[in-house]
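Reopening: structure tokens for the adenosine-5'-triphosphate complex, inputs below.
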Amino acid sequence: AAAQTTNFLRNIIDAELANGKFAQRGWAGQPGEGSLHDAAAPDPARIRTRFPPEPNGYLHVGHAKSICLNFGLARDYGGVCHMRFDDTNPEKEDQEYVDSILDAIKWLGFSWDANGTHHQYQASDYFDFMYHAAELLIERGMAYIDQQTADEMRANRGTLTEAGKNSPWRDRPVEENLRLFREMKDGKHAEGSMILRAKIDMGSPNINLRDPAIYRIRFAEHHNTGNKWCIYPMYTFAHPIEDALERITHSICTLEFEDQRPFYDWLLGQLRDAGMFSEPLPRQIEFARLNLTYVITSKRKLMQLVNEKHVEGWDDPRMPTIVGLRRRGYTPEAIQLFCERIGVSKGDSWIDYSILEGALRDDLDEKAPRGMAVLDPLKLKLTNWNALFGTGHTEPCSAPVHPHHEAMGVREFNLTPEVWIEREDFQEVPEKGFRRLFPENMARLKYGYVIKCTGCEKDADGNVTVVLAEIVPNTKSGTPGADSVKVKGVITWVSASEGAPAEIRLYDRLFTEAQPDAGGRNFLDVINPNAKRVIQTWIEPGLTNATAGTSFQFERHGYFVADRKDHGQSGKLVFNRTTTLKDSWGK
Ligand code: ATP
Ligand code: MG
Ligand code: MG
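Re-run output (same inputs, fresh job):
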């Protein structure tokens, strides 16, 4: 396993393991009521965590933090991380999302294959069990059917400074509650006509304990259970039960659930006292969600970007989704490294996007094969070519695939009488300090010869169309004469006759503000219109063999990836700029 930054969660787990908290872990659920484990068998896993997305959208970089955390803890402590779909909400869920979530987790390098089964947990598999738990609460006098209207319930909930008011239905007899709840289940009552609430304390300073709703009527088909149910549990009721059923030890969630923890503990305590679960019960622990500058991490808002066509889909390389990052050229290793570097804490903060890019550069610098590409092409003619080499000659050149890893091999390409260079590498009248091509100056064509600029050609508007230069004989890189002439400028180039045209998509941050949705700002108002720019370029001939999804460093320009979707389609070569070589953020 990779080196781990310590975090407060590891300290908690270390202490619990040291005092034997989990030594006696068994499961007290009743067989046939959604039991997952043999109650008598001790749990072979030292700890259990879970990653519980709702399958209602694509995962984003914030989820990656949660994935690295939960799967990483399980990996490092000899535990298991459950892949669980929190699919208690029948309306918004879809198989497309389920598939993409599983793909994203595998791609990130994690597996939920604890014992060769690749078991996926689904909250909806426990609906019977949850229903039973609700009846137990009713029987214990801890839940009641409320028939107030939604407006009345809202009005009676009170405020932060004012206690709530008891519902007139709060003291219904147990028998009547049970009868009505069963009628709800049997479809005898209309949506919104009644609701099951926990009976806790309308005067609690924590509004979440003011008799929270736990079951509601919804005549909706569910992707797993079909039309079996017309009542569905609320998330806050379902989640603790899911955790306890699966013998989760650490239920790690984001800080906004801190106020829910008392209800989590209340509910599991009730069900323990009713004999349904036994100690040690799962423990909810909150951590700070990832906020990344220039990025939005809300599924709803990302969905809006897609649906309103501000981007070209969930996997648009400008998107912070896992599929978007992947298409942009991010690697799983870079994302894991990023998550390690930012660590886990209890305090909300903003992480600078440059930390994500830094992790990416650190990963790609060691791995990515090198190549040359000219992004803003200007023709250069070598006017003494025929005199020096004869007509039709091409001059073989070579370069390392990676400057530090000889084993990665050597690239071969030819120097030819006409090459493409970057427009910015020529200045007819050089500014102070300019070291590349200007009349009478010498510079090196990288991996080739020193050349001496002799002038340029222009069109009718005075734009430079061709740069003219002469090869300085006996100065080829890698030959004894290479150092005979000293030059200060080195220029990247691509042969005009042997290089290949390629489309390059230059991506930039999607928003012009570091906190696009902060302080009530509409994030749609700060979309960066220049976040995608498409240019026509020339690339080194060997790069035409690139397979889709492969990353390269284009020397001096940055990291690029052959687009997973469009590269190689109808003969077109398409690369995405993943990031520049140096940090260009925040400046
Ligand atoms: P969103 O608010 O974007 O819809 P969510 O929290 O509702 O996200 P879920 O599918 O419920 O999405 O999330 C699955 C898990 O990922 C949860 O445990 C949640 O805590 C975690 N998670 C979601 N967003 C972030 C984030 N920005 N940083 C860290 N963890 C996150
Ligand atoms: Mg959620
Ligand atoms: Mg959320």
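Residues 27-35 have pLDDT under 50 and may be disordered. The longest helix spans residues 61-76. Marking as resolved unless the reporter disagrees.
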